[in-house]
Amino acid sequence: MDRGIIAASNAIYKVPQGFIIGKAPSLDQLRYYSLYWDKVVIPRFDFIPDALQVPQEDGFISAGILERPEIETLPFGEPRREAWVNIMLRSQSQITKDFMQEKGTDWVMQQEGFTLILPEEYSIECNTLRVDLANCLPVPIGDVNAYDILEFKEYRRDEFLALHEHLDALYEQALLSPDKSLSSKKAISDFTKSIADLDKITHERFKRSRKFDLSTELRISGGQLFAGAAAGSLIGSAIGFVELPIATITGAVLSTIRLSAKVTTTFEPAKNNLKLAYLTNARKENLY
Q: What is the pTM of this model?
């Protein structure tokens, strides 16, 4: 099955005064999306100059990895900033809901930041387990175009398939053991090996690379919620978390897996799926 994301056209940050519209996806982010997903959709809005085009857009589109659907907006004048945010969030939510009906592709919503921001009509409160992979996923940077990324991805297809399989197994095991006992499970060992393999082949092929984070919100069913004391404790405290270090190929502990569970607002159309949404934390050394 193909894996796809519907990414926001711009980062949106919630502040006490309302919302701030951040930057459009950078070239490094597009490489990251293209390397770890099979299909990438980023809506286009005519009222936000930064959202009209992303770096090397034509190349990623012609390579068959990127799609940019046009969103019809207000016909006269510029909408207020609050209206811009509402249009962007509703459009991303509706597009994600529509694409999720497509058979053969596992579509998941993706946003920048630490918290998923949704319009009320697309949100639902539920128990979630969040898995944060910090400093884990290598992405080539520098003089690298869309075809370089896809050629490398196809040539190393087995390693990328193994990563996704082990990542899904990690998600499933984390739901069963959301505590430090997860560190001794096969899922952690397999995932760590996949990351080490990707580090090695990326360094062999490209001169420069950068590590990216990935946060995934997972649905906790009622049975899983009450299956063990650890899950119940995490949900009950709402702020509890477990952090597990991952050794890299050099033996240094630079990457971590962090698990945190709580009742939160998430994407309603995905309520029956394992993966509810992806988030990328925009750290200075990684993204901008």
A: 0.87
